[in-house]
Amino acid sequence: MSEQEIVSDLRWNDNVSVAMITLISYEYLLLLDKEIKYVWKRPWSLMSCLYLVVRYLGLFLALLCGFWGGLLYIPESVTVSPQVRLRAESRQSFNVLLYSCYILVVLIEWGFSVYFCFAEAILIWRLYALCNQSKLLLYVLVGLFLPIIALSIGTDIYLYSRRNVFSVIEITTPNVKYCTLSFNIGPMPAIYTSIPIVCYDILLVVLAVVILARHLKERREVHMRANIYMVMIVRYHILYFALNLTNQILLVILWAHIPTSAMSLSELFNDTAPFILAPRLIISIWDTHARDNCMEVSTAFEDCVCWTSPLRFEQHEMDSYSSGMLIPQHEEIEVE
Predict the structure, then answer these.
(1) What is the number of alpha carbons within 13 Å of residue 127 lying toward its C-beta?
(2) Which residue from 102, 136, 180, 286 has the fewest beta carbons nearer than 10 Å?
(3) pLDDT at 22
(4) CA-CA distance, 92 to 107, in Å (whole number)?
(5) Where would I find the beta strands (DSSP E) of 209-269?
(6) Which residue, 190, 179, 164, 195, is CA-closest to 255?
(7) 54: burial class by Cβ within 10 Å (0-12, 13-18, 19+)?
(8) How far apart (Å, rounded) are the C-alpha atoms in residues 211 and 63?
(9) Predicted local distance difference test score (pLDDT) of residue 325
(10) How far are the Cα atoms of 22, 86, 95 from residue 83, in angstroms, in the given order?
C-alpha cells in the first residue's frame, strides 16, 4: 500500500469518526427533554427499562466506535516489523496494545449482539400487546427467539472470542505508526448467522401486517377510523425490518475486501442508524400519546387501553359515535 493510499484511508477513518460522534451526540441532545418527561418523571415500566437499555447501550457503543476508529497508536519504541528484533519492553508494550485492540473488538461485537436482542424484545412485547396480550403468541415468539439468541452467542464466541482469528496490521505514516486488527475468517459464518435473524424479522413484520389488516377490516365494518397507535407500531415494525435487513447485508459486506470509502460509509450506517432509530421510535409513540385526546392520557402509554386493549378502546369510540348520532346538536355546541 502506497503512502498516498494510507493517508487517504486515515482521512476516511477520521472523517467517519467525527460524523459518527456528531450524529449520535446531536440525536441524544434532541431526545433528552422528551426522555426526562416520559421516562425519568414517570413510574418505571418494562418498556421504559427496555428504552433505557437501547438508548444508553447504543450511545455507549456508537461513541466507543467513533472515538476508537479501529486504530491504536504505536509508540516509537514499539515496532511489529519481522525484520527487527524486539526488546523485552517493546515486545511487552506491543502485546499490551494488541490485547487492548482485541478487547475493544470483542466488547463492540458482543455489545452489538446484546443490543439486537433488546431491540427484538421491544418488537415482541409490542406484538404481544397488539394481540390483546395473547400468552400463546408471546410464548411462541419467545420460543422461536431463544434459538436465535443461542446462535448469536455461539457465533460471537466462534468469530470474536478467539484470539487466533485475528491478525495484526501495521499502518506506517511519515510521522506515526498505527496498528489494527483484521479477521482471518471469511464471510460465510456471518452469512449463515444472518439468515435465521432475517427470517425471524420477516415473521415479526408479517404478524404485524396481518394484525393491522384484521384491525382495518373490523374498523371498516363499523365505519370507524383505524387506531393511530396500531398503524404507527406496524409502520415502525416495517421500518425496523428494513433497517435490520440493511444492517445484516452491510455486516456481511464488511467481511469482504471492499474499498476503504465503501467500508467507512457502511460502518457509519451500522454504528449510528440502529442506535438512533430504536429509541426515537419508542419516544415518538409516547409523544403522540401525550398530545392525543386519549381518555386515559394520564396513564403510562404501555398500560393505556388505547393500544393494550383495542377492543375496549373501540367500544369507547362506538359509544361516542352513537351518542354523536343521537344528539348531533349537542356535539356541535361542544365543538364550538
Answers:
(1) 26
(2) 136
(3) 92
(4) 22
(5) none
(6) 190
(7) buried
(8) 37
(9) 40
(10) 41, 9, 17
